[in-house]
Write a structure and sequence with these properties.
Blueprint lengths: L5 H34 L1 H38 L2 H36 L4 H16 L1 H16 L4 H24 L4 H24 L16 H33 L3 H37 L3 H28 L1 H6 L5 H14 L3 H16 L4 H20 L1 H4 L3 H36 L5
Helix pairs in contact: 1-2, 1-6, 1-7, 1-9, 1-10, 2-3, 2-4, 2-5, 2-8, 2-9, 3-4, 3-5, 3-8, 4-7, 5-7, 6-7, 8-14, 9-10, 9-12, 9-13, 10-13, 12-16, 13-14, 13-16, 14-16
Length: 447
């Protein structure tokens, strides 16, 4: 991260990371495809009713894993290896505690939350069952997120990709076993995901335990070090809140989709897979910007920081745009893999062509957010996203959507909110860049 050509190294970092997330989603998509083809549109809608809600509940803690990535990468750049060790052990223990907390919350709150979101009565019981089983696996989900963030902090994105490939094969095999052989429904889909996630998280923990570098994990040394928890929280909580804002607005949008009926819900669930595939390319370059900038900022290599920022913005938007094109062009063919029903496919195509077309704007949002967090302004993107994304979508939902109560109108709010947010983050970045450069020239930068 601190040596060699920035562009090539960033691509080598980001592409395996993107492929890891895309592969994870590909195997999650197998859940959707198996549910849609072998169980029916009700099961497909039940899985979809949970997607945005799950993200809302876990994103605060996923944000903390981003904080771990930033702080550990920065400490590596500063060669503060004792700080690295303490941050690693703090992160893993936080992950475990957060997972247990979420498992309890998911089990208790499944019925009231899904009911409040206008989930159709005919699929409510299946949606509740899926959510409860899925959340029982939260300790493994959190451990996987934090362990992979720790590996990313030193530039390792290849081993998580290999582990996730094996995990995904396990997920598909268990899906076919539970649903096709044992005739289970959404419970089989959820259980397969939990088992696969358990495998991937355990393997990553073992890899950390066998590390010979400063990120080595010793399970006997697990302890929350308040100093480093504070540093992680300072970056991670705003990042988590930002993710929750995205998810909260998506939960509200999901409520609007639910009001259009279960076929619309099934179509939106199908399209969501294309959105995830393209979003993960955008997010990978956001993580690359965060990790590269954090290490070089910690090492006080400010000239390289400037190059990192330029390369991240250029490569992130271009790669996301190119990666999105096949999904837009072949939207109908893509959607038919998940459901044989024409009405479901028609809804999915509408959502894909509206949202995936503009995913490159979302790439800029992810990269600007990562840059600002790495430079010590983690709260700034959070505030902007709360106002621009959540505000725009809620206003749209309760005004324009009420007048034009259509699937197309509802999803247009994504484009409007992204455009407003991107403009606001660009302005914030210009201001922060001037302040940072001024501090560097005066020698007042404190990493």
């Amino acid at each position: 991260m601190q040596e060699g050509p920035v562009g090539i190294n960033m691509i080598k970092f980001a592409i395996p990371l993107a492929l890891t997330s895309i592969l994870q989603q590909l195997f999650n998509s197998a859940d959707v495809a198996i549910a849609g083809h072998y169980v029916g549109s009700d099961a497909l809608a039940s899985v979809g009713a949970n997607s945005s809600l799950i993200n809302l509940l876990i994103n605060l803690f996923v944000g903390l894993s981003v904080g771990s990535n930033v702080i550990i990468a920065r400490l590596i750049g500063m060669k503060d290896f004792d700080g690295v060790r303490k941050s690693v052990h703090t992160s893993i223990l936080v992950a475990l505690l957060a997972g247990i907390f979420l498992a309890i919350v998911g089990w208790i709150c499944a019925v009231p939350i899904l009911t409040a979101l206008n989930t159709p009565q005919e699929i409510l019981s299946q949606a509740v069952l899926y959510m409860r089983i899925y959340f029982l696996g939260m300790p493994f989900t959190m451990l996987y997120n934090f362990a992979s963030a720790i590996l990313r902090s030193k530039g390792d994105t290849k081993r998580p990709l290999i582990v996730l490939t094996i995990s995904g094969v396990i997920n598909v095999a268990l899906n076919l076993l539970f649903v096709c052989t044992f005739s289970m429904g959404v419970d089989g889909v959820a259980l397969a995901t939990v088992c696969a996630t358990a495998f991937s998280s355990i393997v990553l923990i073992v890899l950390l335990c066998k590390e010979n570098s400063p990120i080595h994990l010793d399970l006997k040394q697990l302890k929350i070090h308040k100093k480093y928890l504070g540093k992680i929280a300072q970056v991670g909580i705003p990042a988590g809140v930002q993710g929750m804002v995205f998810s909260f607005s998506n939960v509200m949008i999901q409520s609007g989709i639910n009001s259009l009926g279960k076929i619309a819900m099934a179509g939106a669930t199908t399209a969501l897979n294309a959105e995830y595939f393209t979003y993960y390319m955008a997010a990978a370059f956001g993580h690359a910007a965060t990790s590269f900038l954090s290490q070089n900022y910690g090492a006080k290599n400010y000239q390289r920081c400037k190059i990192v920022i330029k390369k991240a913005l250029l490569l992130g938007t271009v790669f996301t745009l190119v990666w999105s094109l096949p999904y837009i062009i072949f939207a109908s063919e893509f959607s038919s893999m998940y459901s044989p029903e024409k009405e479901v496919i028609d809804y999915a195509v509408i959502r894909i062509q509206l949202i995936v077309t503009f995913q490159c704007i979302n790439a800029a949002i992810e990269i600007f957010s990562g840059i600002l967090r790495s430079l010590g302004y983690s709260v700034v993107p959070t505030i902007i996203c709360i106002i621009a994304i959540c505000g725009t979508r809620l206003v749209w939902l309760f005004t324009i959507f009420r007048i034009y109560h259509t699937f197309e109108c509802l999803h247009t709010c994504y484009i409007a909110s992204w455009a407003i947010t991107c403009i606001a983050l660009t302005i914030a970045f210009v201001i922060v860049r001037k302040k940072t450069y001024a501090r560097v020239e005066q020698g007042n930068v404190n990493c």
